[in-house]
Amino acid sequence: MDEKSRQRLIRKLKERIPQENIFTDEPMSKHTTFKAGGVADLFVEIMSKDELSGAVGALSSEGFTFSESGFYIIGNGSNLLVSDKGLRKPVLHISKEFSKINSDSETLICEAGCTLAAIAKYALDNSLTGFEFAAGIPGSLGGAIVMNAGAYDGEMKQVVESVRLMTDTGEIVEKSAAEMRFSYRHSILKEESFIVLGAKICLSRGNHDDIKARMNDLAFRRRDKQPLEYPSAGSTFKRPEGYFAAKLIQDAGLRGFSVGDAQVSEKHCGFIVNRGNATASQIYALIKEVQRRVRESSGVDLETEVICLGEFE
Fold it and tell me: Where in the chain are the domains?
C-alpha cells in the first residue's frame, strides 16, 4: 500500500486498537518459526475478539477485505514462509493474549491465540485425555484448525466439537466439526473466508500420570527424530498418498542438501531447516528443488504444508 493509504488506515485503526499494538515495517522474521522473511508494511497485534472486530471493520472501510485476500491473519507463524520482499497487505496477528481457556466438564473452550502446548498443559492439569498428540506442535489453535493439524495418529478433527468464526463483516458464527469439513491438512477455511475466534475441544476423563507419561513419550520421540535445534516450519511437505515424504526425499539423495543456510535436515528429511541465516528465498528455492528432484526420481509430486506469503517468483 502507498504511504498515504497506510497513514489513513492507521488513523482508523487507532480508534479501535491501542496505538502501542500497531506497527509499521515490522520484521516478519520475528513472527515465524523459520526466522526468515521481510517486513510487513502494517502489523497489528490483536488481543481480543472486540479488537479483531474493530480491526476488521477499519480494514473493510478502506477496501481491505479478508474474503478477497486483502489482509493476512497469522497466529504463531509455525507454518509460514514470508517473502524476503515483505508484505504489502496489512497483517493481523492473533496475539498470545487472545488465549483464554475455560472448561465445562470435559469440554475446553479455547480462544484462537492459545498455543497447542498451553491447551495440552491445561488438559493435563485437569486430567483430560485426547489432546496429548498436539502437545509438541508449535502452533496456535487458530492455525491448527485452519489446516487440521496433527501428529502421531492424532489430528484436530478428532477433538474439535465446534468452531467460533468471524466473517469479514464482523458477524460471529459457529460451525460444528462436521460443517468444518476436516480432512488431511484441510478444513473449510482453506476455501471460505472465516477468521477463527476459538473452538470447543471435547476430551475425556483420564489418569493424570498416564496422560503425562504419554506426553513425555511423544516429546522424547520428537527430540529423538526431529531437528528441533534449528528453526523450521515442522514437516515441510504433506504426506503423499501411499508414500512418506521423508523417504522420497532421502531416496532422491537429498539428505543434507542445502541452498545457502537452508538445508534438508540430516536428522529428518521431511524437515527443511534454517541452519543460521537462511533467507526466505533460499528456503523457497530449496523447497522447489526438492519437489523437482523427487518428481524426477519417483514421479511423485510433493505438496507443501508450508504456506507462502508474499512474492517469491
Answer: 3-94, 101-210, 228-309
Q: Are 172 and 199 in contact (CB under 8 A)?
A: no
- Catalytic status, residue 193: no
Whether 296 is a known active-site residue: answer no
Which member of 185, 187, 232, 265 is catalytic?
185
Cβ atoms of 39 and 86 closer than 8 Å:
yes
DSSP 61-126: HTT--GGGT-SEEESS-TTEEE-TT-B-S-EEEE-TTS--EEEETTEEEEETT-BHHHHHHHHHHT
pTM of the model: 0.93
Active-site annotation holds for 185: yes
Q: What is the rounded distance in angstroms from the CA atom of residue 241 to the CA atom of residue 212?
A: 32
- Could you tell me which CATH number the domain at 228-309 has? 3.90.78.10
pLDDT in tens, 13-39: 999 999 999 999 999 999 999 999 999
The Cα 274–Cα 31 span in angstroms is 15
Q: Which of 83, 140, 232, 235 is catalytic?
A: 235
Residues 45, 132, 155, 305: which is the catalytic one?
A: 305
CATH class of 3-94: alpha beta
In this predicted structure, the answer to whether residue 282 has a pLDDT above a threshold of 90 is yes
Contacts 24+ apart (CB under 8 A), 168-176: 168/56, 168/60, 168/65, 168/66, 168/67, 168/193, 168/195, 169/60, 170/53, 170/56, 170/57, 172/197
The C-alpha cell at 276 is 543460521
Fold of 101-210: 3.30.465
